[in-house]
Amino acid sequence: MTTATTTTTKTANTTVEAPVPPAKMQKPEPGRISTLTRTEEVKLKLMWSYLLVEQGIAPESLCEDAREASQKLAKTTTNTSSGSDKKKKSGGGLFGFGKKKSDAEATEEVAEATINAARKKYRDAVKNYDAEALNRALFQMYRADHPDNLVLRFLRARKWDVAEAMSMLGETVAWRLEFDVESLTYKGEERVKQEGQDGLMLQFRSKKCYTYGHDKKARPIVHVRPRFHDPKAQSEEDVQKFTVFTIENARLCLQDPVDTAAVIFDLSDFSLSNMDYAAVKFIIKCFENHYPESLGFILIHKAPWIFQGIWNIIKNWIDPVVAAKISFTKNFEDMNQFIEAKYIPKELGGQREYEYEYEEPVEGENELQQDEETRKNLEDQRLDIGKRFQQAVIDWIQSPDLETSDKMQQKKNELAEEFKNNYWKYDPYGRARGILDRTGQIKYFQGF
């Protein structure tokens, strides 16, 4: 594995080791912005057109523009990789149909039905919220991501079926508003502690879950240790909030082109008294429905014999795509196939010296949140960048040829980088500091 420049970050109780994970040295996987086939690019244009029209940002005609773009592409090429002259094979037609009909025939036949189905599915999912709330929720949901990457997660998760991807995205936006994810991350651990939410604070203090280290592909590792979980010690709501806290914070450790995390379920000393089916169901729901394409792999390590019966129940809840990412490991050698020894805990046979200890919120760590003027200015900047990005998307969809389309994609990429930089300026004003800030993990993974 390649290495990066070494740095050392010190916090109150922790020294974060170097090197910074070499995310930039990793190759982007298929279905990402730089690796899209032309057919996949059309799917992305179609989905953006439906989304912008449904959000009230673009006129109805944009859907027709996207349809015409797909028809033009069908008559020229569906096999050229975006931004490249290299030919690639792609399965099915532009709308996911088989090879019996040409792409042009399939496009003409189903385009109208696809547009209507996709838009209706999204509309039904978000019917309880107005356009302003939905736009704000989307901007918040992007965080430091390239907006294209976020949309592509939903397309890949639904096998490039635009209607199903629109439905999934709509349901996720509605869920985030209902669960009030942004309020949760804005208040953070300090407010949880101040408000005396002992059940939720117990989750952090219990050492049942933490993020540290990375696998051989620079994915951050989320360590889950069920032996520290007592299903009766807190409410189901506390477990759900902690799960969302963990996922949202882990997202901040991702750096393009690394866009997935690794999860280890360490079942050492696990017993039936630790089993919590409700918590497992919620975790599965989150990853499958609301954080799609976020898992690189899951290792279920040292599962005892009693887990066999539990697994026979749980596996029926898991989507086959997610199930394919699960591996059972028994010893250091098994785990070492995925993770370097220096990131495997000593108790599991590795070389890692780091031992997780929860660091309590530090008084004053969120004082920047009191600067409402700066926060508002950064939010306004974010809104401006977002609007310019949306206009660039419209121009990209309406591009008259592939060369213009590629130029507009580059403009989108530049605005997405501006969007990302804005987020990291905004972050300390809009998100409370958490354990990954106090231990230096976010800085470690982002290379700050």
TrEMBL record:
Pfam family, one: CRAL_TRIO_N
Region of interest (Disordered), residue spans: 1-31
Low complexity bias: start-end ranges: 1-15
Domain of life, per lineage: Eukaryota
SUPFAM superfamilies given in the database record: CRAL/TRIO domain, CRAL/TRIO N-terminal domain
Stored InterPro entries: CRAL-TRIO_dom (IPR001251), CRAL-TRIO_dom_sf (IPR036865), CRAL/TRIO_N_dom (IPR011074), CRAL/TRIO_N_dom_sf (IPR036273), PITP/CRAL-TRIO (IPR052432)
Location of the CRAL-TRIO domain: 197-356
Name the UniProt record assigns to this protein: CRAL-TRIO domain-containing protein
Source organism of this protein record: Trichomonascus ciferrii
